[in-house]
Amino acid sequence: MSPAPTGPVIGPVPVRPAATLFTTAVATALVTVAYTAPTASLAATAEAAHLGAGGRTWILTGTLVGISALLLTAGSAADDHGRKRVFTFGVLLFAASEALAALSPGGAAYLTARVLLGAGSAAILAPALGLISHAFPPGPARIRALGVWGAAVGLGIAIGPVYGALVAQWAGWRAVGGGLAVVSAALAALASAVLAESRADRPRPLDPWGVLTLAAGTTLLIAGLAEGRTGWGRPAVLVLLAAGVLLLALFALVEAKVREPILDLSLFRSPGFIAATGGAMFTGLSMVGFMSYLPTLLQGVLGLSGPAVGGVLAIWSGLSVLAALQARRLAAHLAATTQVAVGLLICGIGEAGLYGLDPDSTWARLAPGLAVAGIGSGVLNAALARLAVSSVPAHRAAMGSGANNTSRYVGSTLGVAVTVAVAASAHPTAPGHEAAARALAAGTDRAIVVAAVLCFAGALLALASRAAESRRTGAAEGAEATTRERVPTN
User: Fold this and answer.
1) Residue 2 pLDDT grade (very low, low, confident, very high; cuts 50, 70, 90)
2) HSE value, Cβ hemisphere, 13 Å, CA-based, for 51
3) Which domain holds residue 123?
4) How far is Cα 451 from Cα 246, in angstroms, rounded to an integer?
5) Is residue 212 part of a domain?
């Protein structure tokens, strides 16, 4: 006699909560590994792939283009046509793009692979939280699961730079993508076997104009931000930025007019949704964007090698993993919006602790600030995962995840652009390597101040959203009490 399934059955595969969490968490970690792997050896990878200075920028930006342009679309498609289907397709596309990166004959093919990698990553990230929320009912079990997912984000960031630097050093830059292609192909087979399908009860028709304007607008905006790092006044940069903003404004107009939008604009009336998307945006601006470029700054100021930089940053990302796993203990005491504010506040304090970097410093000088920022990042990642699911209707969990991650990655692109511009604002006072390093250290201090201030601004936005949420709840309870008083009793 065969054993009974472990959960409700949808189609041929039963819901397996533990297997679902493992599969989605590993895939999420792979996404952040793939994105951060080139950061500790960016110059060497660009040189080996025959890319110039502009190519270095696009190694990271290409992936952001694919992710940001398609996250919301992938989330909507997952809710309407099947979260497992979109997730599995994303893992397969991820594997194919990493294989293309490993086999690419030159820079153009490699950058194409990075854009496709972003598209596959979007199709992984958007359904992941929807799959988790379907497998775990609301309550402590779901909060723990979302904390594990948040920890997976930090784990991938911790592994990525070290993995990329060591593999590129020992086996060449092609092996970085080759290894990830093998792992992700195996993960696609696992996803097909263990994930149960889920979707909204009433699928919606495609919103083609919303998809087109969002994808084109985010692509042009990110391209403008990337190209602007070499000069913001150039006509090409201004045209890209203006066109991107115009298309995103058109996207908002389209979504307000169509009957079944991929993003329901009425959600922005909800303080929880504002805290979720705003918190994600400021996380990208102040943390992900700054930390993505910090390896380059540390190499230029302290002269650290790629593996050494990866090890130093593991202080931040490693502690974020531990903090995210323990953040579930805060759920009984703090609302998710308050937890976002606390996380951003701690991150800002940690980043401020990095101030004072000097070419004569050692890596140990950075350890306290990175440790504090890592704890804040873990608390923040767990809270954002909670809000991404709880701030939207249950049948739109993947769309909520897509909106949250879109904000995070667009913010990351802007954060990298701001970091690069501010760090380069200090000019050497004399010729020579030492003067250049000291100028870069001064610019890095300025970038640290900007990043910390952005963290504090994000915390204030979250607190304001929490206050609005409390007022709304109080007003609703007051109206309900008034209604009860008016009901006559026998």
Assistant:
1) very low
2) 24
3) 10-193+258-480
4) 27
5) no
CATH classification at residue 127: 1.20.1250.20
Mean pLDDT of the chain: 86
Lowest mean pLDDT of 23-27, 29-33, 405-409, name the range: 405-409
Task: Check residue 172 and give left, alpha or beta (phi > 0: left; psi -120 to 50: alpha).
Answer: left
* Number of domains within the chain: 1
pLDDT digits (tens, 9 = 90+) for 241-284: 999 999 999 999 999 988 888 888 888 888 888 888 999 999 99
End-to-end alpha-carbon separation of the chain, Å?
58
- Length of the chain in residues, anyone? 490
Which residues lie below 8 Å from residue 239, measured CB to CB, with a gap of 6+? 224
Bridge partners (DSSP) of residue 9 are 14
Whether residue 462 lies inside any domain: the answer is: yes
So what's the pLDDT on residue 106?
80
User: CA-to-CA distance for 107 and 101, rounded, in angstroms?
Assistant: 9
DSSP E strands in 6-151: the ranges are 9-10, 13-14
CB atoms within 10 A of CB 190: 16
- Evaluate whether residue 31 is within a structural domain: yes
CA–CA gap between residue 331 and residue 174 (Å, rounded)? 43
Reading the block at residue 291, the tokens are 């930390």
